[in-house]
Amino acid sequence: MSLREILLWPDPRLSRVCAPADADDPALPALIDDLFETMYAAKGRGLAAPQIGVMQRVFVVDVAWKEGTPAPMAFVNPHLSFHDEVAHAEMEEQCLSIPDLPMPVTRPSSVQIAFIDRLGMSQDEMFEGPAARCIQHEFDHLNGRVIFDHQAPKARTEFEARYGG
Questions:
Q1: Residue 45 CB: number of other CB atoms within 10 A?
Q2: Integer distance in angstroms from the first to the last C-alpha of the chain?
Q3: What local confidence, expressed as pLDDT, does residue 165 receive?
Q4: Coil, helix or strand for 10?
Q5: Which conformational region is residue 6 in: left (phi greater than 0), alpha (psi within -120 to 50 degrees), or beta?
Q6: Which CATH superfamily is domain 12-163 in?
Q7: Does the N-terminal peptide bond of residue 153 adopt cis geometry, omega within 30 degrees of 0?
Q8: What is the pLDDT of residues 40-63, one digit of tens each?
Q9: Catalytic status, residue 37
Q10: Cα–Cα nearest to 50, from 94, 14, 79, 75
């Protein structure tokens, strides 16, 4: 495992759509390990491969580790197959690529996601609450979206100015 540098916005790689990962690539477990090590060191709850400059559809989350019991999950080539069309919630989100600038983001309260896990097994699971929010946040990174992209134009301009963009 190695600690990787986290790209900071407005690095152009954060605005690019990622290519599918080769689930059989022998380097994939090391990438996942690096994502976890980097995420934990940065005190985050999720980290996507493009945030460390790897333009592949891979991200990791662990929404429970700060409360005591780690629950690390890796998502390779994820596909959101369902999101709650009715229940949405607005909450402040933070991003390791846009440090120290929380901003409100409205997201569906639950999502179903199909993915390949760390062991190479296909999964299809439903997530709610903080896990659903974190998964959607990291999934956005795979599609070149950051939390600025969830803001109305005026609010985005104000947040970018506060960030220094």
A1: 22
A2: 33
A3: 52
A4: coil
A5: beta
A6: Peptide deformylase (3.90.45.10)
A7: no
A8: 999 999 999 999 999 999 999 999
A9: no
A10: 14
Of residues 71, 10, 23, 76, the one with CA closest to residue 49 = 76
Tell me if residue 74 falls in helix, strand or coil: strand
Tens-place pLDDT, residues 65-91 = 888 889 999 999 999 986 667 788 899
**Cα–Cα distance list, 127 to 24, 108, 114, 144 (Å):** 26, 11, 11, 22
pTM of the prediction? Answer: 0.94
Give residue for tokens 């986290």: 6
Q: Point out the catalytic residue in the list 37, 93, 125, 138.
A: 138
User: Which regions of the chain does DSSP assign to beta strands (E)?
Assistant: 46-48, 58-61, 73-83, 88-95, 98-108, 110-116, 122-128
- CA–CA distance, 140 with 149 (Å, rounded to integer): 10
Q: How do the domains of the chain map onto residue ranges?
A: 12-163
Query: CB count, 10 Å around CB of 145?
Result: 16
- List Cα–Cα distances, 20 to 75, 86, 116, 150, 162, in angstroms: 12, 30, 11, 24, 34
Tokens of 95: 């991003």
Dihedral of CA atoms 90, 63, 51, 122 in degrees, nearest 10, equals -110
